[in-house]
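Technical annex B. To support the medicinal chemistry partners, we prepared a structural model of the target in complex with iron/sulfur cluster, based solely on the information shown next.
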Amino acid sequence: MELLIASGKGGVGKSTITASLISLLSKDFKIAAVDADAEAPNLHILFGVHDWDRVEEFSAAKTAYITDACTNCGLCKDVCVYEAIYEKDGMHHIKSYICEGCGACSIVCPVDAIRITDTISGWLKVGTTKYGPLVSAELDVGKPNSGKLVTEEKKIARDWVKEGKAEHIIIDAAAGIGCQVIASISGVNLAILIAEPTPSSLSDLKRMYGLAKHFGVPSKLVINKDGINPDYRGLEEFAEENNIEIIGRVPYDSSVPRAITALRPLVEYAPDSPASRAIVEIADKVKGWFDAR
Ligand code: SF4
Ligand code: SF4
């Protein structure tokens, strides 16, 4: 089974819940963990991975560079809508971190002085944790194609399943509904959506739910920080309107920030805390789904 944990919004506790679920579920199943937030990966920190087994460069972007044939006519600078080309001391240069590799400059250059080449857009990282294998990724500054990077991560995790190193895949999605999240959700069996009882979180939940629905992925809801806004019923009403099962309510709990500071999954750091107990109940439900497959 491939399970996505997503929120549509950062800061609602998605990685905290993901890390604890993986910690609990890895006692009964071989879990492949995928940190699909290539722009801000953090699962490896909670899992204590300091040394990676493997780090691979990932190229899915192009960049332009100017060769010595340049006559400094300036035509390329005029055509670059990204303003990646600048002139200094009469010479033309390209800011590679801004260049999108569109190739417009190379088309207008009258002396064919511009080359477009592949460039490293990020890194794929494979590690071993006490919970099983972890694949993570890191996008380079300003580079596009984080979605392709996430797709590569999922391929690695799926290979682990084929090789018998894992039975189930749990993907910790990035915030938002951008290309990373789209790459994360395609082909998964179920999305667990995490939201907190606030209007802004509801707004993001609606967008994330719409994305899951678009891809034909069923969703379940976890309400995190339950109780911080006792009169607010927006999440429940949305879940009822859309027939989304609420599979857990994790109360606001001061153990959570302490566990994050201690760099440990909450259910290990404070197993008897109210939040941990709520996550254990969610894990029991996930176990039932895993057993049923
Ligand atoms: S390839 Fe495109 S983005 Fe890059 S410098 Fe040329 S025109 Fe600008
Ligand atoms: S268009 Fe070609 S020749 Fe002109 S400044 Fe750009 S790289 Fe140099």
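Notes passed to the chemistry partners:
The longest helix spans residues 274-292.
The longest strand covers residues 114-129.
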